[in-house]
Amino acid sequence: MNMTAAPAVEPRHGLGLDWNTSGPGELRRRIRAGRYSGHTGGLARGYVQANLAVLPAAYADEFARFCQRNPKPCPLLATSEPGSPRLPELAADLDLRTDLPSYRVFRNGEPDGDVASIGDLWQDDFVAFALGCSYSFEEALVDAGLSLRHWNDGSVCPMYLTDIECAPAGRFHSRLVVSMRSFTPADVIRAVQITSRYPRVHGAPVHLGMPERIGIENIERAWQGDDPVVAPGEMPVFWACGVTPQVALRAARPHIAITHTPAHMLVTDVRNASLAVG
C-alpha cells in the first residue's frame, strides 16, 4: 500500500494561530494544509470534537447496532451517506479525507499504520461514523475550575483496556476502553455532576477508584496515551472512551477500516453547550 506518511508534529505556537480561541474552521484548514498534525486536546475551545470510524457499507448496519447497544463508549453523533466524505450537520466545509490531524488504517482487523490523509484510500462504499469525545466535557470541567493535568502539561489523557465486556452486535465485540483523570475526593463529586450533563460525549464516569476492579493491573502504565501522574490524595476516575470502537473493528476484521489516531480528533462546528442536558 502506498500511504502518505503523517507530517511531523507541529508545535501549538509559532503558526500565527491562537490555539485556545481560534475557531474550528481555521484549525481544520491548518490540518488540511499539513501545517498541524498533533493531538487536539484543548484546541478550538467551545466546539465539539468527535471520534471517527470509517468502514465498508457491508459492515455499517452492524456497527451502528454496536453503537446503539453501547452508548457510553460509542455515542453516535452523525453518520455519512455511503461514499460521501461529508458530515454537513457537523461542519459545512468538512472533508473527512483530510481534516483530521492523523488517521489510523486497519486491514483485516490489524493496524496498518497512521497517515496524514486518506484521499487515496477512500472508497465509494465507505460509511463514516462520528462519535462523541470526552474532550467536550473536559472543557466543562476546566470552566468549572477543575484541573486536568494532561491539559496543563500538554500530554495525552491515559487510556486503558478493561475487562468489562460491551454488548456485541454481529461481528463487532469488544472490551470497554476507558480514559482516566484523577481528582481530589471533593472534585470527584463535581466531575460526576458536570459530566452527567453530557451523555452524548460519554457522560458520567463508569468507575471510581480501585482500577483493579475493572481489570487494570497497573494504572501507572497507560494502554494508550501518556502514562499518568496520580498525586497523593487523588482518586482515579474512569470514563468510557471512544477508542472502544477501534477494538471492535479489530474483532470484526473488515478488509479495510479507518479511524482517527487516538487523541487526534475530528473538530466540528457544533458548540459543546448544545450537547448539555439539564
Tag the structure with descriptive keywords.
278 residues; four-stranded antiparallel sheet; PSTPO5379-like fold; alpha+beta; PSTPO5379-like; 6 helices; 20% helix; seven-stranded antiparallel sheet
Write up this protein.
The protein has helices at residues 24-32, 57-69, 135-143, 149-153, 185-195, 244-252; strands at 47-56, 76-79, 103-107, 110-115, 126-132, 159-165, 175-183, 207-208, 235-240, 257-260, 266-271. By secondary structure, the chain is α+β, with helices and mostly antiparallel strands. It has 2 domains: 24-132 and 253-272, PSTPO5379-like (3-Layer(aba) Sandwich); 136-240, PSTPO5379-like fold (2-Layer Sandwich), CATH 3.30.2040. Strands 1, 2, 3, 4, 5, 10 and 11 form a 7-stranded antiparallel beta sheet that branches. Strands 6-7-9-8 form a 4-stranded antiparallel beta sheet. Strand 3 (103-107) and strand 4 form a beta hairpin. Residues 1-17 have low confidence and may be disordered.
Tally of separate helices: 6
Instruction: Give the tally of structural domains.
Output: 2
The count of strands amounts to 11
Distance separating the two termini: 49 Å
**What is the overall shape?**
globular
Largest sheet: 7 strands, antiparallel
Order of helices and strands: HEHEEEEHHEEHEEHEE
Question: Could you tell me the strand content as a percent range?
Answer: 15-25%
Stretches where pLDDT is under 50 for at least 5 consecutive residues are 1-17
Which CATH class of the largest domain applies here?
Answer: Alpha Beta
**Share of residues in helices:** 10-25%
Query: Could you report the average pLDDT, rounded to the nearest whole number?
Result: 91
Q: Which architecture of the largest domain per CATH?
A: 3-Layer(aba) Sandwich
The CATH superfamily of the largest domain turns out to be: PSTPO5379-like
CATH topology of the largest domain: PSTPO5379-like
Radius of gyration: 18 Å
Global structural class: alpha+beta
